[in-house]
Amino acid sequence: MRRNRILLAMMAAAAGGDLALAQPREAPYAARPKVEARDGAGVYRAMCQGCHMPDGRGAAGAAAYPSLANNPKLAVAGYPLALVLKGQRAMPAVGAFLDDEQVAAVVGFIRTHFGNDYREAVAAADVGAMR
Hints:
This protein is 42% helix and 3% strand. The chain starts with a helix and ends with a helix.
């Protein structure tokens, strides 16, 4: 839980928010930082590139951040969608900071960039159904 709070604080700072906004999971939604970007590239820059790097190749250091580049796991849209919304292991559920349109945009972005060419569209309705 402490590691998740630290990650949330780092994401809040990267999004231009105040570190005090990164609250435990029980915090009201109004206390969460708001990501202003609406397009997939902007959401990626605000929420994802701090760990997955600007080129999507991931990183290793204090933790291992998986590469999104040329990633066959992104072929099925439900996989990255579930990770963004629900998180997994060290990946926090960053979908809590985004509305359905932003989640759809960033998932579409990572599936069509960094050497990926998965064109199946992800709609906001798909995100809402998975939430």
